[in-house]
Design a protein that fits this description.
By secondary structure, the protein is mainly beta. Helix content is 0%, strand content 49%. The strands form two sheets. Strands 2, 4, 5, 6, 9, 10 and 11 form a seven-stranded mixed β-sheet that branches. A four-stranded antiparallel β-sheet has the order 1-3-8-7, with no helix packed on it. Strand 9 and strand 10 form a beta hairpin.
C-alpha cells in the first residue's frame, strides 16, 4: 500500500508561482509519479509525470512553465515529487492530485486546490 500526501496549493495571482509537493509512504520504489488536475465540470487530465529513471512528460499547455522533479534514482524509496508551477494562468485553476504507479497499481493523493485569480 502507498499513501500520498500533497501540499503547496493555494491562491496566486496570474503570472505567479507555486510549488506542489507530494510525499509517499511506500517502502519500495515507485515506477512513475506525477500530477493530474481536475477543474469543476471537466475531465481529469495529466499535467506532468516522471519515471524512476528521470524521464519526464508534460501536457502541452504547461510545457516551459511547469517543472516536475524528484530523485527516484537513489536507493531511497521515499523521495517526494515536486511540481514547480511558474507563470500561472487562470486556466491552471483546478484540484491537483498526486499519483503513483507501482507494479501496475495506481495510488492517489487527496488533492490540493490551486486557484489562479486576481
Amino acid at each position: 500500500q502507498v499513501s500520498l500526501v500533497e501540499s503547496g496549493g493555494g491562491l496566486v495571482q496570474p503570472g505567479g508561482s507555486l510549488r506542489l509537493s507530494c510525499a509517499h509512504s511506500g517502502s519500495t520504489r515507485i515506477d512513475v509519479m506525477g500530477w493530474y488536475r481536475q477543474a469543476p465540470g471537466q475531465e481529469r487530465e495529466l499535467v506532468a509525470a516522471i519515471t524512476n529513471s528521470g524521464t519526464t512528460r508534460y501536457r502541452d499547455s504547461v510545457k516551459g512553465r511547469f517543472i516536475i522533479s524528484t530523485d527516484m534514482s537513489t536507493d531511497s524509496a521515499k523521495n517526494p515529487v515536486y511540481l514547480q508551477m511558474n507563470n500561472l494562468r487562470s486556466e491552471d485553476t483546478a484540484v491537483y492530485l498526486c499519483y503513483a504507479l507501482r507494479s501496475g497499481e495506481v495510488y492517489w493523493g487527496q488533492g490540493t486546490q490551486v486557484t489562479v485569480s486576481s
